[in-house]
Amino acid sequence: MLEIKNVTKKFGDKVALDNLSFKVPEGSVFGLIGSNGSGKSTLLRIISGVFNCDEGCVEIDGEVAYENPQAKEKCFFISDFPYFYNSSTVNTMADFYRSLYTTWDDNKFKKICAMFPINADDKIINMSKGMQRQAALIIALSVCPKYILLDEIFDGLDPVVRQLIKKLLMEMVAENKTTVIIASHNLRELEDVCDHIGLIHKGGVVMEKDLDEAKLGMHRVQAVFQDELGEGVFNDLNIVNIKRQGKMIVFTARGDKDTVENAVKAKKPVYMEMLPLTLEEVFISEMEAVGYDINNIIK
Amino acid sequence: MTSTTSSNKKSFSELYKWSLKRNGSIMLVFSMVMVLGILLDLYVMSQLGEGDYKAHSGDVSEIGMVSIVVAQVAAMIFSLISSVSTFSFLHNKRSTDMFGSLPATRETMFVSHLLGGITAVTTPFVIGSFVVVGCTLRATQYVKPDFLFILFGVLGIIAAYTFTALIAYSCGTIKDTVVVTLGVNVIYAGIIYSFWGIIYQMIPGIGFESIMSTPIPAIFTPFGFCLFEDAFYYDDNLTGIITLVIWSILFSAGAFIFALRTAKKRKAEVAQNEFYVKWLPYAVKAGASIVCGAVAGLIATSMKDGSGFSNMIVFVAWYVLVGLAASIILHAIFEKGIHFKNAETKNSVIVYSATTVAVIGLVFLFSTGLGIDTYVPSASNVKSVSLGYIRYQFKEPENVKTVTEIHKLICDGIKKNASHPYYISSGTNMPEYDYQYYGATIEIETPDTAWGNSVRQYKTFAKKYPLVNITGFSFTYHKKVGFTTYRTYYLSSSSMGLYDLDKIESLLQKLYNSDEYKHLSVSPVFWDEELRAKTSRTQAPTLSYRQGSYDEYGDYSTREIAAENLPNTDEFVDGLFNALQQDILADDEYYISMYSNDLRYTQEGEFMVLTVMYEYRNVLGYGIYRNYFSGDVVEFIPKSYENTINYLQSYGISIDIENNSKLKLSPTELVRGSYSDAYYTHFGENGDSVSLLKCVEIIAPRIEYAALAQAQKFDEIDDWDSNHGEEFINALVKKADELCTKYMSNSDNINPTYENSITRQNSLSGDYFYMADKIISDLVSYSVELVNQLSE
Description:
The complex is a heterodimer. Chain A is α/β, with parallel strands linked by helices. Chain A is built from eleven helices and 14 strands.
């Protein structure tokens, strides 16, 4: 179990994380989402021991992670721009990590290497950004950590490799009960792999729940009415956002599906459809709810 | 806990190995540089003949000079490169993420990288240095191995590496690390050397000399290690070396402890792109502005010979401008540009202004403001005082008073030009001095039957002392309360008119003629050519002498005089050496001044040369030192050298001149020795010419001394000198003039090449020694007559 307990992190006067608390269940794939500068990467760095928090702590299996080699050995962090020694190859980096992590699995390394379109003897510095990310992931998976922390891992990867990575991560979770935390803006990809999501905004947790629960707790309705309805017609519902186009109304609302559906039906729509909500829409909706000015940004 | 510890140990050893691997390219390049140096040395050695090796009779550092210098400089450069590179993971966001997340503590990360890097730089240095030693030892048997430079090199690498690591942990970028590391080294050395003159003068009891005689200047500036190499050998004995090693270890340990503490506390996220130690950039900027400003100001004032006020204006103007420029440049580097409204710029302006006002204020205060330059201690508060660069301390109250009077006369001269900011100009024109050695060397030469060459063995010890080329005065007062006050005054030729030189000369003569001075001094003193002391002498036992004469080529050939009962054993040499060393080292009050003596004898067909060489120095710091051209005639051993005297007397080779019973001095030889001293030591080496008459005038006191000894009137020397000394010298010079006329009228006596140009005032060179020798021989004969004549 990975537990973030009242973590506060400041950079000078700027509060990056403000009394953040949540738990990441063991064996879960946890998607960490949030606006730019919300503190996702900072949180990953705190979990992995790169940064220390100003207040609170991160516990890995009940142990404080910072400056604790034993706890840190259970984690592997791939930052948004992974680092490799100059002139190193995947093989030499494997030697390096093999010497530092007792959990290193050589067979796995060979197996994964064969799966990726990478020559393990090529210099990593000459590889493309996407290839370097693949190299980092090969290393990370071969370390067989209990917790794997990935920052924007899908960036720069082609669709085939993205699928491969997702597959490998799922296998690790299934086989080893590995806990994966992925910070990403690529919500489409996260949606495929994550079973939990945490939404961070301005250093605080906006939402942290099971992905299905997050999706189920929010509904999007598109309906056409005989006549134009007045303002505040759905005030009884917990509306996240609403758009009107003549007689057509599209809105997102929180709450029980039946309640929302019944409320719309009560207005006798000519046409009504409950639309499936993507993670991206959940994200946008939630962010709008906390005052993230989507409309202004899009304009 | 056990698991954590073992995990840490594993991480440490693995990170150490990887740190070493990362430095592989640096090791390779450093090794190549070392090999290049060694190859150059081997080439130099292959070009040297056996005689050259003998000439390089010192240690391995003299033979393997190229590679050792290369090794030391390269060690410092590669320490900087390797250290900056090794700790770059602190400054790069990507690598910080990677290293920060590894299963190791920050201390483990620091120590493993530090040791890995140090090993990487030290290994090629040590291996290369041993190869140098091996090559030179193989190349010549005359070289003794000196492993000290390897020890000091390793210490230097450790100090430099650890210091750079500390700076790396204090900075936010690689660029800042490099700038600050170099800056701190340059600033440290710069501040010491820019202001040493002022510090030397302004704080009684803290002399720069005492700072420089310790390894502090060198060891606190790791990358200046090579530049201050002398400081590492500042005291050629075990105590000095141990002191140096301790200082070095303390410095490295201090840097290590601070770096470790910083490593633990440093916030990785804060230190990316900005300084972790916030005051560091301000300190570097302030230091750079002080050093650059002061150096520019001192150079500017030294280039003009204006009034005091204008000198001060020039100094301040240059200080402000150059100091400001240095500060701005560093500010732009640290802040990546100049942003007028940010806090760093405002703080920098405040720091610059404060340091500038403080430094200019201090310079003003200690130049003229407090009048320290003209402060003369009261004679009654002074325990002892030395004049010039000698260490002999006048203790007699009368002599102390005389020195303070000389000091006052100097100050009176300064006051005549009262607005002159004395220290600003004097700081750039300190009295010149150079270092020479005093000590003892015992040299044994025995035939090497296998090769037909002689083999020399040396036993030597030496201490450095400054030899002054008088362009000013320095006073060292040891106060009764325990403080020491130093004062140094530069007397430029243009300002000589300000000083009452006649009075100074008469006071100096009073000192020279004092019993306290006579007791120890030997030869007359030269202070320019005008301020000549009348006479001085010592009562001392004679060791031995050798005889010889100039041949027709002006060369000096010798006839060996065997000393009876002198055993040809190492035991004797060791005993003499130990006795001499004991006496010289025990003599902590003054330096003796005398020159070397060869004692040659033959014993059962085996030839052996024993050289006992030691050196006296006179009051104004002139060393009389000679070990070539003419045979050394006589040695004086101070009475206080009881160990040496007793030792020699136990072998029957020491003669007490006061008893005079076994005096075997040849007056001619005695004088000739002085004559060549005068010519070679004081004139010839500077390439200046000197007239024969001037030489005679200079050596007249010796002739007088020799004549008195010859006339059996040595015991009356003090009275005789005060009654007849001046008359004797005048008569002698007059006689020399006559002899010049006589000999120069006969072309047989001079080299025809110079026939037309020679006059009695003409310069002397080697070709004229033949003639000069005749004149001096005649003069010596005449001097005995003169003594008898005047005595009547």
